[in-house]
Write a structure and sequence with these properties.
By secondary structure, the protein is α+β, with helices and mostly antiparallel strands. Helix 26 crosses helix 29 and helix 28 packs antiparallel against helix 32 (831-849). The two termini are 69 Å apart.
């Protein structure tokens, strides 16, 4: 028999304790045996190793390889500018690695948040004396005292309870405070029992005593902590794509570099010179500027999302949002306001829809004054002043009733309290006794089945009349209707006497005053957000610890379920399902999970991942931490969320607004589209950088572009314009498209063909044409060899470099859309892109006409005739790309 199923005396005896508590000697021995009452950390990778990993990703390894080759070439053949290339590449790696390293603190912050939730002090009974001790010193068998406002320091079995209510939302996700008692429970699991309080929860009403049966990592809190720490963080889709792209780039770069190195050597080029050109090809093919540009684009996206109250804690999460196919959302505080409110009231034969209707009905307050007195006075709340404002502390349900009474009947006087019979789970009601000007008033509220049966009269429009069977049937029908809507139904009753009566008889011969239906109302913006998710092909699944009927009613109200009978699975039913059965159950069009435990939420997420879904999970409690870590993207609530949830999440909704998730998805989809735009833009000039090396080997012409010049395009001239493409506004129709397929690659066939074999070849042809234009005007003949310091050769390479940069100015506008014309996308509307173009032109002038840049890059200024030669080339590139877009649009229209 488990501790919650035992009697109080047996439970204490099973822990070898005593109602007066442990002795100090016993407690000291147990502290040595069980250890301190704290959540320890799971051994992880050393910080230094995690730091090193930021500089050893697939893409970084390619750059390290290129830098090493450049240093080797510098050692073998000094004076070729390879040292500059190596230093520049290393700077790229270091900046990008440092920029993202701070993300690795997420697990440590989550653990610190878990520790912070546990109370620091506890009132402990030792040798029949109350001592206030650090919570870490608690051991199994300790008897502790609990009161309203206390945080529970360990998992405990109640031995005394007086009107005790606990807020379990952080552990179970259930929004309503749970009334507890000290009697044995028939529940199978402690989480379902009515005599257990868990570490990390809080007492909202009443007081009592409890014996500790689990501390530290053995508590339910500790178990969830372990899940948070050990749940495997999912690699984001973007990281997978970048890894794939880096592998592809590395293979192509090394393969092509090696092939042309070997060809050059075979055709008569000196071995070390051939190696130098192989290195140059690798540098040309690796988009060194892609990683920092990608990082900066994601950072700017996070800043835009912060303005929409979405805080991104993990940069790849920005893009992961755009590929989300399923959102698993909590109910309380996420879809709802986490604030109880009166939704329906039955007064006599009047069924009133809301509090506003109560206020609008003339004379209603005077006719049903006892009803409002019950709402105002029959409770366990504490009144306090916070920042000069009167506030109530305690059960949110009781707060809602008091606020309803104050709003509708503000002139109701508060009668002095004489006695109180607290709520307990056996009686399912509470009563208060007050002194009035006419004698004694007894106010009762509770479950209808526990209150109505004690009534023999009812209040109807100010008159008290007998309560017959027909009236009872009407009350039952209204109660059932309210319950079906997911409302929590309470019955109000009262009795007025000239003098006080015996306590055991105060709840007899009552007058039925009415029913109240309460609900945690949905956020008003949620239904529209759900509709947008559906339009975007994103499925929303509710996973809550709340009651199934409540969950189903909220789901219907917000449009989450459209069928009359959605599939409703409780935690107990979920526990009985095999993995295959759960996988099949998730195929249901409308499905809701209620009374779900922390590990079950993670189980659902893992099953969805096995179904090849990209899963986002929302949550605010400690119990949500494991699922937040396990999902592709975890979304925590910023206001109502615990620090644990925020620490485990990838993003935080600063205003707890579910609708902000849809805005974030739109931003994420735009980010992915923008990454493809600037990837296209970057790959185009990589082709233009590669062709000079191929021409050098195959055509035996001078090298048109030096490695340091190629690197200057990646790291300077193109940087801001590429970033401008990374912050393009979302396409208006992006949220009317389904999520992209997981099989869809960042660099797919269409992007590669357009970048490498169309725009890239056009730009490369123009660059080589500019190079030969300058050479032929200078009298060069095929076969002639120039020293690298020759002014003609320097001007020719500068012309090639200038052609690439100038064509990139045109190309940036072409890359704003894969299919839309420049006339549609326009030249304006993106301030960063505009500044990028201005900067690129400015850098182009610096490359040509400043001595120190000439010295750094090996350039010389080109003349007016060369500029005039380049001018129509931009128009030529524009016409060709616009023609291609027209053909694509017509083909798609026919399809």
């Amino acid at each position: 028999m488990r501790v919650h199923q035992m009697s109080v005396s047996d439970a204490i005896a099973s822990l070898r304790s005593h109602p007066s508590g442990l002795t100090s000697a016993d407690a000291a021995l147990r502290l040595l045996e069980y250890g301190p009452n704290k959540v320890g950390s799971v051994a992880g990778e050393p910080m230094a190793l995690r730091f090193a990993k930021e500089f050893t990703s697939n893409f970084s390894l390619i750059l390290w390889f290129a830098a090493a080759l450049a240093l080797f070439a510098q050692w073998r053949a000094p004076g070729q500018g390879m040292l500059k290339i190596a230093v520049a590449i290393i700077v790229v790696i270091v900046v990008s690695g440092l920029f993202s390293f701070w993300q690795e603190y997420r697990v440590e912050r989550a653990l610190a948040a878990l520790q912070a939730l546990l109370p620091q002090q506890a009132n402990v009974l030792r040798e029949n004396r109350v001592a206030r001790l650090p919570a870490e010193q608690l051991v199994p068998g300790d008897v502790i005292l609990l009161g309203q406002g206390d945080n529970v320091p360990a998992d405990c079995r109640l031995v005394e309870a007086f009107g005790l209510c606990v807020q379990n939302a952080a552990i179970t996700g259930e929004s309503r405070p749970k009334p507890l008692d000290a009697g044995p429970s028939t529940a199978l699991e402690p989480i379902q029992s009515t005599n257990i309080v868990f570490a990390g929860t809080s007492i909202v009403a009443g007081d009592g005593r409890a014996v500790v049966f689990a501390t530290g990592v053995r508590t339910e809190f500790g178990r969830i902590t372990h899940l948070v720490q050990t749940a495997g963080g999912e690699v984001s889709p973007l990281r997978k794509e970048i890894a794939h792209l880096s592998r592809l780039t590395a293979i192509l770069a090394v393969l092509i570099g090696s092939i042309f190195c070997a060809l050059g050597w075979v055709t008569g080029i000196a071995f070390w010179q051939a190696v130098m050109f192989g290195i140059g090809i690798i540098v040309a093919m690796v988009p060194e500027g892609l990683l920092p540009t990608l990082t900066l684009a994601l950072v700017l996206a996070t800043q835009r999302m912060a303005k929409r109250n979405v805080l991104i804690r993990y940069l790849p999460a920005v893009e992961a949002l755009g590929s989300t196919t399923v959102i698993c959302t909590d109910k309380t505080g996420t879809l709802t306001q986490n604030r109880m409110a009166v939704r329906e009231v039955l007064l006599g034969a009047r069924l009133l829809a809301d509090v506003a209707q109560l206020s609008r009905t003339p004379g209603l307050v005077d006719l049903y004054r006892p009803f409002f007195c019950i709402g105002l006075m029959c409770h366990d709340l504490k009144e306090t002043q916070i920042a000069g404002v009167q506030q109530w502390l305690g059960d949110p349900m009781e707060i809602a009733l008091v606020e309803m009474a104050q709003a509708v009947a503000p002139d109701t006087a508060f009668d002095p309290l004489l006695d109180k019979v607290p709520f307990d789970t056996d009686r399912m009601r509470m009563s208060t006794v007050h002194r009035t000007s006419g004698g004694i008033a007894i106010y009762v509220k509770g479950a209808p089945e526990a209150v109505v049966t004690r009534c023999d009269r009812r209040l109807v429009d100010g008159k008290v009349e007998p309560l017959d069977a027909g009236n009872m049937k009407q009350i039952a029908e209204v109660q059932e209707r309210m319950a079906h809507r997911g409302l929590r139904v309470l019955a109000f009753a009262y009795r007025q006497e000239a003098a006080a009566c015996e306590r055991e008889h105060i709840e007899e011969h009552l007058v039925f005053a009415g029913l109240v239906g309460l609900e945690d109302p949905p956020r008003p913006e949620v239904p529209a957000a759900i509709r947008r998710c559906r339009e975007a092909g994103i499925r929303v699944i509710m996973i809550t610890g709340d009651h199934p009927l409540t969950a189903a009613a909220i789901a219907r109200e917000i449009g989450l379920t459209r069928s009359d009978s959605p599939k409703l699975i409780t935690g107990d039913e979920l526990r009985a399902l095999t993995p295959s059965q759960l996988q099949l159950a998730l195929d249901a069009e409308d499905i809701i999970f209620a009374r779900a435990a922390a590990d079950q939420k993670m189980q659902i997420v893992e099953t969805l991942k096995r179904k090849k879904q990209i899963v986002a999970v929302t949550g605010d409690g400690v119990n949500d931490g494991p699922a937040l870590r396990c999902a592709h993207i975890g979304i925590a609530m910023g206001v109502a969320g615990t620090d644990v949830a925020k620490g485990a999440a990838d993003m935080v909704l600063l205003d707890d607004n579910f609708a902000a998730i849809v805005d974030a998805v739109e931003e994420g989809r735009a980010v992915y589209a923008n990454i493809r735009k600037f990837l296209t833009y970057v790959l185009v000039h990589n082709v233009a950088e590669l062709v000079p090396y191929i021409a050098f080997v195959l055509l035996r012409v001078p090298l048109a572009l030096t490695p340091i010049q190629a690197l200057s395009i990646d790291m300077s001239t193109d940087a801001l314009t590429a970033l401008g493409l990374g912050v393009e506004r979302p396409d208006p129709g992006v949220m009317r498209q389904p999520p992209r397929l997981q099989t869809e690659r960042l660099m797919n066939r269409a992007l590669a063909l357009r970048s490498y074999l169309f725009l890239g070849l056009i730009e490369a042809a123009i660059a080589m044409a500019a190079f030969f234009f300058v050479l032929h005007r200078g009298g060069w003949a095929h076969g002639a060899v120039f020293p690298i310091s020759s002014p003609l050769y320097l001007r020719a390479t500068t012309a090639c470099l200038s052609a690439i940069v100038a064509m990139q100015v045109v190309n940036v506008f072409l890359c704003r859309s894969e299919t839309k014309s420049v006339l549609t996308t326009g030249l304006f509307g993106n301030r960063l892109l505009g500044w990028g173009v201005v900067t690129e032109i400015g850098l182009l002038l610096l490359i040509n006409y400043t001595p120190w840049v000439n010295e750094l890059l090996g350039t010389r200024g080109i003349d007016t005739q060369t500029w005039l030669f380049l001018a129509p080339c931009g128009a030529f590139m524009l016409v060709l790309e616009e023609t291609r877009k027209v053909i694509v649009r017509r083909a798609r229209a026919k399809a």
